[in-house]
Queue: 2 jobs
Job 1
Amino acid sequence: MNNISVIGSGTMGNGIAHVFAQYGYKVSLIDINQPALDKALATISKNFDRQVAKGSLTEEEKKASLGRIQPFTSLKEGVQQADLVIEAATENLQVKLDLFRQLDEFSPENAILASNTSSISITKIGSVTKRPDKVIGMHFMNPVPVMKLVEVIKGYATSQEITDTVMEISSKLGKTPVEVNDYPGFVANRILMPMINEAIYTLFEGVAGIEEIDTVMKLGMAHPMGPLQLADFIGLDVCLSILRVLHDGFGNPKYAPCPLLVNMVEAGYKGVKTGEGFYEYTPGSKDLKVSRRFH
């Protein structure tokens, strides 16, 4: 298994492409938007530069890794030689179902089709293909080159052989794969998102301020990042989407998104990606300032 196709060149997609290329795989990075591909390749190059500066990679290894990544704007061309396809597109059910119908048509019949979804049912995604036994979840963590965990999500129809193969590939990337079954939110987000949601409710109900809530969790619970800062980092729109999947999937009111989160997303304050969420973000600055909207 040598040819990897990655669908989507955003934060997760370019991180996944980076890691596979670094470990010797030939990578086709696919996005319908050429400027997005150009930006992704520049980001990957900068991230490799950081590794070179730290001494974890040589300049020659960086060049070789970059040479293994080929950009495509055509989905059909980008997956026609794939052994493994990893979809890292928008966290939207309809988008993913449409993509997997096309991937099933365009990819070699023995190719494994994986999704980097953080919450959407692998069973449902696999059901729109003619190869549900070869459809699986590979949930990488952000930033992909740094974070060790890969949640390997086995859909109801996913074969054990495919699951074992993906676990092995993940290990070859220097990651620690964990096999989980296909239920809303899997493990990571089923536990993480209610915590983030509760932190937002704690703010919403006036129990404490943003810095105070994050400080309690960092110093009291040894979390490297407070839940409100983490929500900004993930993207408040992504957090809202996952909470809605959990709420719809389990029908339990404990997963209902906080009204404050809903309002912030609807107003366009989505965290780091938009420059403001619970905190304000200035490019190039490491100072963390609470959003003026919460003063």
Job 2
Amino acid sequence: MKTILVCGDPAADYSAVERCYEDECRVERFASKTPFQKALAGHPDLAFIDVRFLGEGPGRGSERHYERDLTAFAELAPQTPVFVLCQPELTREAVKAVKAGAANYLILPLDATEIAYVTESLEELNQLQHELDYLRGRFWKKDPDDVTQTNSPVMREVFRKLRRVAPTRTTVLLTGETGVGKGTMARLVHLHSNRAAKPFIAVHCGAIPETLIESELFGHEKGAFTGAVRQKLGKFEIASGGTIFLDEVGTLPPSSQVKLLGVLQDRSFQRVGGERDIEANVRIIAATNENLKQLCRADKFRTDLFYRLNVFPVELPPLRERVEDIPLIAAGILSRIKRTDPSDIRGFAPSVLEAFRLYPWPGNVRELENVIERAYILESSDLLGPESFPAEMFAEEAASTLLPVDPSLPLSEARRRYVDDMEERYLREVLTRHKGRIADTAKHAGITTRQLHKLMTRHGLKKESFK
């Protein structure tokens, strides 16, 4: 059964909506925008709102103000199409709303045939888009952990670049803060290149002593130096036909920089103590969390090597600049942990996800992985709750949940607003913990199921949203 929200003049006739879908829908009506917006959190199938309820306040009637409301609706229910209703004389305003993000508009009084036409047209368009996304996305199907899922425009651009460069043999330079996932992106490029069946060899340049780095990368001949009792193959030789990932390439000592430059220029190298040229049939992906241009200016990195590595640069954003992806990344991390260490833990408490959104993540994705793994060990319930995470992660979240003080309000009204806010957040938390089960939630809260139903109606909560 479809759930449809309608927000408009209480005296208007909206029966055409019900006639359009007959017994297949449940229509909820609202006389103002606030409860309508709260009800969107329940992810209805369709929503209709009178254009006069959009962009209220100063500047009303501009695309920017319509966009403000429509963006807020989309954040609550990204899969719910919102249609604008208007009187014939307000058609121009409805068109502005469509440009600002509404799915389409309908002129009052409503006609069931017109409703069916615009909604079916939208469904056909969405189906075509899904098919197109599927065809585009087939390129990434080799990724076992589905790391290419993203809601971030910045990351979509990153994946667009990686998709274009992966089939080539072009040298790639990945930049970004520590822990943003440069190694994961390098492996992704390898998996989607024509070298995928060959080795992927990762080398952390900063973790190898300077005296051993050339031997590790290029190998050595027997007797090349004290302790070289046998011939050793280097990483470039082991990676032949595949990809070598040079992480923290900015830490390479000058002598190794010279030899790496030779590999990039001549596509060959010699083992330490050797005289024979060995072909470097390998694709190089380098990564750094330092500014190589600044290192070049400080004479700590060769400028000619920088230009050889910087053929196709890709900058990865820090986690704090892609907060919309945190729930997806966290769910993927939890799924990977459960594969190796199964448990009844099924997800994250809402307060934890909110804390994730507000926390600055100085250690980026790596830090997120660490705190989730720690919480997974400590948690005793079926949801990862605040008690299992470091307390400092919730300092910002606790401050943000407090409503701003409005001294212009009477004390009674200010108190009512604070109570309503606390009540709604409490109900969301408890409903989530009990997967939307009314009887269990009411028992936990110490109230009757009837009282719980009344509270949920007041705050626009639906049990289906918590299952």
